[in-house]
Amino acid sequence: MRKVLPYVLLLSLSACGIPKEQWEQKLRENAELQSKVGDLEQQKAKLKAEIEELTKQRDDLHRAIEGMKGNLGKSDREKADLIERLARMNKTLEDLQRAQEAAEKRARAFKDLVAKFKAMVDAGKLQVEVRNGLMIVKLPDNILFDPGKTDLKKEGQEAIVQVTNILNGIPDRKFQIAGHTDNKPIKSGKFRDNWELSAQRALVVNELMIKSGMDPKRLSAAGYADVLPVANNETDDGRKQNRRIEIVLVPNLEDLPSINDK
Hints:
Elements: H1 10-15, H2 20-68, H3 76-116, H4 118-122, E1 127-131, E2 134-140, H5 141-144, H6 154-168, E3 174-180, H7 194-211, E4 219-223, H8 236-242, E5 244-250
Parallel strand pairs: 3-4
Antiparallel strand pairs: 1-2, 2-5, 3-5
Helix pairs in contact: 2-3
């Protein structure tokens, strides 16, 4: 049976008379989340299949080596080659098992994060996604800021306080607040360009999160202007998606590959 995320309540939205545009947006968001969870599950399944196949090959090779112990017709070189192959296979198997454990950990963490933000996702205040291996909480700028401004709107302040309270409950994690804009040149005399605007917005969110109880040592802020778009800047909808604040869950060192792994 295909799994459905527990927070998806699309039928109840329809019954409440949600406008068609919002309804379609919810359908798109649900499909995206289902796709992201499906991608994580596919990664896990692929790793599991690779491990099972490699384990079978390893066991066959081990039996071959055991069978050679009493076979004087085999040269020492042939035996040494098989033993070397077995050692390499064991190393590859260990690496795959570590990768599988990491994939399972990421999948669990993503589902937990989505569950924590269920109410805010349902309200359309933010989205949770995995991009380039990073878990991200994405807030559209129209909820947070007026165009070209860095003063948080009342709704934006409330959203940031809610987000901070939730993230505070995730132990041993650091977060980077990243400001992003579309590619339209800024017309405000207060900022020279979108770099300054995006960086200042990130700092404003950073400051409010600290005031809301987040340990400053867990935070960093950065502005990316328009260099990391998530949609096409040639359309109004694409530019709207690109204007955003993202809170990135910084990976812990144990989540990263060892420097000794090759």
